[in-house]
Amino acid sequence: MAYLLSLLTDPAAWVALAALVAMEVVLGIDNLIFISILTNKLPTERRSAARRMGIGGALVLRLALLGTVAFVVKLTAPVLVIFEAGLSWRDLILIAGGLFLVWKATREIHHRVDPDPGPDAINPAVPATSVFTVISQILVLDLVFSVDSIITAVGMTEHLPIMVIAVLVAVATMLFAADPLANFIDANPTIVMLALGFLLLIGTTLIADGFGVHVPKGYIYAAMAFSALIEALNMLSRRTRQRRVQVRQD
Predict the structure, then answer these.
(1) 153 and 170 in contact (C-beta within 8 Å)?
(2) 110 with 122: CB under 8 angstroms?
(3) Contact status, residue 147 vs residue 68, Cβ threshold 8 Å
(4) Residue 85 — φ and ψ, nearest 5°?
(5) What angle do CA 123, 125, 126 make, to 5 degrees?
(6) Residue 72 · residue 154 · CB < 8 Å
(7) Are 168 and 194 in contact (CB under 8 A)?
(8) pLDDT value, residue 220
(9) For 51-92, what is the HEC assignment?
(10) Contact yes or no for 109/58 (Cβ under 8 A)
(11) Which among 169, 220, 217, 195 is positioned nearest to 24, based on CA atoms?
């Protein structure tokens, strides 16, 4: 109890908490875009439940990893050397997650560009998307983002309660924003392609980070924000033209 009271009265702890919450929320945007695209392939009545299951899985994974934070920190020790570069388990997880994200985004883009994709654009023998398949893919990517965010959090603070609170706030924000974001993406087809482009960018960044080439997150999110702004202007332009056509027809 004395430990918690000391945190409550420590200004540095509050600053660390604010920084961690901001970081977790920003990192959650990547995950939320992926969840939105996957769950929008399900029947309408199952989408919301699938999103909550996926986000709930993210919460369980992050809290479980926080409980083994001493083990997670050791994942940064080199275990493999490729081209004279030492790779840790964290690096391998980031590379695998980045490759998965690039593969998934490329597959979705192919599925949407192909005029007759069938139930699966690459392998017609694969049945249509199921809730289990969607949740499984969400949890795979949750693991990648969770490991990365927790290792980053450990570098920002040594207090476990602060990390737990930051995770809880970030997951609550994801739960609140999940349905509106997914519905917005579903109602605007061009946004889907933009979001898939974001996933390609994020996947490539994860691969680069795994090989030791660090790309500042600010550059990535600035590029995403600029692209989103341009798309918003395009949407506004299209709506203006539609209104003009309706006025002329009336």
Answers:
(1) no
(2) yes
(3) no
(4) -110, 125
(5) 75
(6) yes
(7) no
(8) 78
(9) HHHHHHHHHHHHHHHHHCHHHHHHHHCEEEEECCEEEEHHHH
(10) no
(11) 169
Using alpha carbons, select from 83, 118, 97, 111 the residue that is nearest to residue 192: 111
CA distance linking residue 66 with residue 242, whole number of Å: 51
Non-local CB neighbours of 31 within 8 Å, separated by 6+ positions? 58, 141, 142, 145, 174
- The pLDDT assigned to 119 comes to 52
- The C-alpha atoms of residue 170 and residue 149 are separated, in whole angstroms, by 11
Expressed in angstroms, the distance from the first to the final Cα of the chain is: 70
* pLDDT tens, residue by residue, 132-184: 888 888 888 888 877 777 776 766 666 777 778 888 888 888 888 888 888 88
Structure letter (DSSP) for residue 122: S
How many Å apart are CA 95 and CA 22, to the nearest integer?
Answer: 24
Asked if 157 and 11 touch (Cβ cutoff 8 Å), the reply is: no
Instruction: Measure the CA–CA gap between 12 and 14, rounded to whole angstroms.
Output: 5
Read off the tokens for 107: 């597959």
DSSP assignment of 179-217 equals: HHHHHHHHH-HHHHHHHHHHHHHHHHHHHHHHTT----H
The first and second tokens of residue 249, run together, are: 């027809």
Mean pLDDT (whole number) for 218-237: 82
At a CB cut-off of 8 Å and minimum separation 6, what does 173 contact? Answer: 25, 28
The pTM (predicted TM-score) of the whole model is 0.70
Cα 70 from Cα 234, distance rounded (Å): 48
For residue 40, what is the DSSP state? T
